[in-house]
Amino acid sequence: MHYPQLRLRRRRSTPAIRELLQETRIHIEDLIYPLFVCAGANKREPIEAMPGVYRLSVDLLLEEVARARQEGILAVLLFGVTESKDELAAAAYDAEGIVQKAVGLLKERFPELVVITDVCLCGYTSHGHCGVVKDGVILNDETLHLLAQTALSHAQAGADLVAPSDMMDGRVKVIRDQLDENGFSHVGILSYAAKFASAFYGPFREAAGSAPSFGDRRSYQMNPANRREAMEEVLLDLAEGADLVMIKPALAYLDIIREVRERVLCPVAAYNVSGEYAMVKAAAAQGWIDEKMVVMETMTGIKRAGADLIITYHARDIARWLQED
């Protein structure tokens, strides 16, 4: 059937019809709220490159999560910020570390909250890389037991999901084995399965203090030009025991999200990263865009590409806008 019998504008003729026939919807339950937690008390440190995002001490983190919960957000992703750094990232797997303390207090106060922890070493190493370094080389296998130790310490603190973001080969299997052997088979793994060596991470490195002191991360994070390799990474992580997979960043990798969604059955997450957030905030501050409309269009695009879950710094704004609408 063709025009004039078929008129697609009939499906768009009124607001009610457009709402009725909308194919893709964003729900508050789709959102994961990333947060930065630091040592101390009553600390709320603004991140210049990410307006509206802060490094929070645990007491203020609890207040922020309370507000997010009231707005309907079900899950948070925690990143630790520390000044205690060394070659082997000892603060990452310290049972009394900042993330471990935060997890325990969050689960005590909000037992229904889904607490996800970022498992990586870069924010805790003196050199800023995601693994053990020897003679300027980031070592893969020597890093795995430190990542597993970090994941186990998060599980012991009460984390529901651990999220390895380092991109070392084999880390999902080693973490899964470590969790299972220590009685934490119920703790899931949300793997940063296809994490690209992206220019969109700049503001995050300011937030977490995790910029590498030499070189870059291209020997372990993925080449942004590679699509087939992304599927290899995803399928390997699932074979090793990942429960969910993540694509990071989101906007320049919608094709990857779509392909992963079509080829796997597990939940798929996408990380709307710091640079993507910062660009919207900067343009909105200049009055060049309508922030709400651009953010919601962006989230719809990520969801339409196939993401079940979206990790985004816009989470609280989106939750409020959805409730208002």
Automatic annotation (TrEMBL):
This protein's UniProt keywords: Heme biosynthesis, Lyase, Magnesium, Metal-binding, Porphyrin biosynthesis, Zinc
Catalysed reactions listed for this entry: 2 5-aminolevulinate = porphobilinogen + 2 H2O + H(+)
A biological process term (GO) from this entry: protoporphyrinogen IX biosynthetic process
GO molecular function: porphobilinogen synthase activity; zinc ion binding
Tagged with keyword Ribosomal protein: no
Active site: residue positions: 195 (schiff-base intermediate with substrate), 248 (schiff-base intermediate with substrate)
SMART domains for this protein: ALAD
InterPro entries with a match to the protein in the record: ALAD, ALAD_AS, Aldolase_TIM
EC number(s) on file: 4.2.1.24
Binding locations of Mg(2+): 233
Pathways involved: Porphyrin-containing compound metabolism; protoporphyrin-IX biosynthesis; coproporphyrinogen-III from 5-aminolevulinate: step 1/4
Binding locations of 5-aminolevulinate 2: 274, 313
Keyword rRNA-binding: no
An annotated GO cellular component: cytosol
UniProt binding sites for 5-aminolevulinate 1: 205, 217
Cofactor: Zn(2+)
Binding residues annotated for Zn(2+), in chain numbering: 120, 122, 130
Gene3D superfamilies documented for this protein: Aldolase class I
Description of how the protein assembles with itself and partners: Homooctamer.
Protein family per UniProt: Belongs to the ALAD family.
NCBIfam families noted in UniProt: PRK09283.1
Function: Catalyzes an early step in the biosynthesis of tetrapyrroles. Binds two molecules of 5-aminolevulinate per subunit, each at a distinct site, and catalyzes their condensation to form porphobilinogen.
PANTHER family xref list: DELTA-AMINOLEVULINIC ACID DEHYDRATASE (PTHR11458)
Name of this chain's protein: Delta-aminolevulinic acid dehydratase
Organism: Syntrophaceticus schinkii
Gene name in the database record: hemB
